């Protein structure tokens, strides 16, 4: 590497722009799969464009652990495939550049991306995912009427079952309401009302939602059946005094939180501990996949009999990405069904693809 610094810098200058291009392309592709969800936020919830940008930003950050290995494979394959197509690999060898010096830029950059990916997987991506969860939760409370569908029973609406014949998601007005509340299983409530309106707290958006009902009845079933008629009745859906922060999902936990929960013996069921173990090894394996994909890109990029280096490099990268995820998800399903240990199952795809890449790389150099 030090004897051929110009070669190293030249190859690296080709890999880095392709890598950044790959990150941009794969972010756009993944956001396209979320287009329907984003459209719902924009049209039904009526959120501002600045909030939409924040949502897309948090989603992109949470996608990074998946994007970095794919982008690295795309960059290395595209770069070395073009070198092979333009006979630059042959020119390097003819000039006395040994194979190790040719491969070193890809290996060094793969190690660097692996380090960045590990920090991203355990800190940046969980932060982005958590910010996304909190923002969506607040939007759901602020635009609560948008989660109620006309003519259907909406379950999970602040732990209530709600039915409304007509819903205006912009004004929050509901007509012909039926509400079933079983928060107290010994005395469940059934509320019917001619009209209702969802009134969010504009001073603290997302922290308090008031449902004001007009002209209805409250039926309480306990030891005796009680009926209460009302002209106006307020239901506080989210009390800011009692509001507790929503518990973090496994994908929103950073490294220290994951390690603590994996070792904790308090209020952790075997299923939850299994989820934490899978999340820890999954992030570690995805970070290491950057180096694995770098080896694969190097092994299959150095060829001399392709018509189009760019097109074949892109096709190969997509093919390897699909194949890797098929293998990975297959092993993950075996892990979740307790057929193989967590650590072994989630790391086996990396081991298999590394051996495959090294074997093919040896054949190319020979």
UniProtKB/TrEMBL annotation:
TM region(s), chain numbering: 7-35, 55-80, 100-125, 284-302, 314-331, 343-361
GO terms for biological process, alphabetical: lipopolysaccharide transport; transmembrane transport
Q: Which InterPro entries does the annotation name?
A: LptF, LptG/LptF_permease
Q: What is one GO cellular-component annotation here?
A: ATP-binding cassette (ABC) transporter complex
Q: Which UniProt keywords apply?
A: Cell membrane, Membrane, Transmembrane, Transmembrane helix
What does the UniProt entry say about where the protein is found? Cell membrane
Q: Provide the membrane topology annotation.
A: Multi-pass membrane protein
For this entry, the protein name equals YjgP/YjgQ permease
Give the species: Pseudobdellovibrio exovorus JSS
């Amino acid at each position: 590497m030090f004897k051929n610094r110009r070669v190293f810098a030249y190859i690296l200058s080709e890999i880095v722009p392709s890598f950044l291009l790959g990150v941009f392309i794969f972010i756009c592709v993944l956001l396209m799969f979320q287009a329907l969800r984003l459209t719902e936020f924009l049209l039904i919830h009526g959120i501002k464009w600045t909030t939409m940008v924040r949502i897309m930003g948090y989603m992109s950050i949470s996608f990074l652990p998946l994007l970095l290995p794919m982008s690295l494979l795309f960059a290395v394959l595209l770069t070395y495939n073009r070198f092979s197509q333009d006979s630059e690999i042959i020119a390097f060898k003819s000039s006395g550049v040994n194979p190790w010096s040719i491969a070193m830029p890809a290996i060094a950059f793969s190690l660097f991306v692996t380090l960045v990916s590990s920090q991203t997987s355990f800190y940046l991506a969980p932060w982005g995912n958590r910010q996304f969860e909190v923002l969506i939760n607040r939007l759901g409370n602020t635009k609560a009427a948008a989660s109620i569908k006309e003519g259907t029973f909406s379950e999970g609406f602040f732990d209530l079952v709600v039915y409304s014949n007509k819903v205006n998601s912009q004004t929050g007005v509901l007509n012909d309401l039926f509400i079933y509340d079983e928060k107290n299983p010994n005395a469940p409530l059934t509320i019917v009302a001619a009209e209702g309106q969802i009134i969010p707290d504009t001073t603290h958006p997302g922290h308090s939602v008031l449902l004001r009902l007009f002209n209805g009845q409250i039926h309480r079933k306990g030891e005796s059946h009680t009926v209460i008629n009302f002209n106006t009745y307020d239901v506080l859906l989210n009390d800011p005094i009692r509001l507790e922060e929503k518990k973090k999902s496994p994908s929103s936990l950073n490294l220290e939180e994951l390690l603590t929960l994996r070792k904790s013996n308090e209020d952790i069921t075997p299923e939850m501990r299994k989820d934490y173990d899978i999340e820890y090894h999954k992030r570690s394996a995805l970070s290491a996949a950057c180096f694995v994909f770098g080896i694969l890109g190097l092994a299959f990029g150095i060829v001399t009999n392709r018509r189009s280096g760019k097109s074949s490099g892109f096709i190969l990268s997509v093919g390897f990405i699909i194949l890797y995820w098929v293998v990975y998800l297959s092993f993950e399903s075996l892990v979740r069904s307790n057929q193989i240990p967590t650590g072994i199952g989630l790391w086996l795809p990396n081991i298999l693809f590394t051996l495959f890449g090294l074997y093919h790389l040896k054949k190319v150099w020979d």
